[in-house]
Give the backbone structure.
Amino acid sequence: MNRTTQLLGSSAFAALLMAAPACADVTPQQVWDDLAAYLGSTGFDVSADETTQDETLTVSDVLLSMDLPEGEGNIRFAADQIVLSDLGDGSVSVTFPAKMPITMALTPAESEPVDMVVDTTQTGLEMIVSGTPEDMVYEYSADVMGFVLSELVVDGAPVGRDEARFDIAMNTVEGKSSVALGEMREIAQELSVAEVTYDLAFNTPDAASSGVFSGRMDDLTSEGTTSLPLDLNSEDPAAMFAEGLEGEGTIAIAGGSMQFSATEAGKTTTGESSNGESQLRVSLSGDAVSYEGSTEDLALGMTTPDLPFPLAVNMAESSFNMTIPVAAADEPQDMAFGLTFGDFTMSDMLWNLFDPAKTLPRDPATVSVDLTGTVTPFVDLFDPDAIALREQTDGVPGELNTLTLNDLTVDAVGAQLKGSGDFSFDNSDLVTFDGMPAPEGTLDLTLQGANALIDRLIAMGVVAQQDAMGARMMMSMFSVPGSGEDSLKSKIEVKSNGQILANGQRIK
């Protein structure tokens, strides 16, 4: 497990407790024993004092500790007291302290040591655990949960809150987790938060730099499922996935906003942003990792000393997707990549910088690409030793087998380019295309409004007449007239013998 993953996992420990990814029974002792066993399997050393009285287990001086790899520090989580009470109906109530500190001592090899304390805080947190050892349900709610940077020491020098702060608050929290124990720990989780607010700031007087970032997210929801090996070895990701670790989850918000201010060398940039519905979906297994994200109604306004007027841009849609195979394989594996910036607009002030006469159409612009294909990974991407060995022996980590351009769209300034295509690659032929696996396939392109755009660029003085003539000649060589006015189309064919044809005419 890398250091970033460990830090994120520790700072979210309160959420880990609520999610309770361990098997439990209806007695307080069983709940605590299994929770402690699970945390121990993830790499934490767990210590605590236990006292039982009148069907209530009090766990005092709770300390979880973990050493970071390569001697780069350690992480500790502390709780003065956790109380687990038998409610008499087959369920257990779990009560946490109002404040639980996470202490991080970081000693990276190439930078100064950092010591910090992040307090996890809560108001009105209630948790009820019910069910059986084989199938349990954790239900919880809280008025407020938060994370606060309470102490920071850099290279032995204390840093006050006027120089660095980090505050996150989650208001009106409700959640439910179910845990089924069999050959794997099967976990299903749901979480809703009415509002998340954050306030981050730094100030570095010696470097004359500072920044303030604050904002909110409304109606945050999250759901997901995870299958965990019973004996989880967090220091060996490859082994975890080989033993069946997999999961998927979605996090979404109804909207959000942010305000920021950043100063560098005495120059200050300020701004604000907002967005509508947004979501991120992640799926991972021993075979592949997939990401999908989207945001609607994105708006950004900014004032910078480099421009004499405010900058304002908007985008109706922004989305991306990516699928990456991660396990070594003998056969081609699916991959995908997609990116969309839809209906992008910017303020007239920004347009007027390069087009004061309004020669170019200022309609919303869209750029979109959708790729799928297959690759054959030669090494497990979660095995750093295998990757390092490949690099040392100048070996490639994998090979590209096929690539399909499902859609290419560039729609801006009155012109539109559309494309699609399909290619296969011969990895045994690295000669025909100068070290690149030899491709074979077809790319279809259509271009609408190109001549009109060239005319506008000439009128603006951006393109000279002789340059425009050369561009038009080049287009005529690689394209034929399309179905409409000022429309061109082109079919580019790449043959296995290295020939390239444009609309049936050989160009290579």
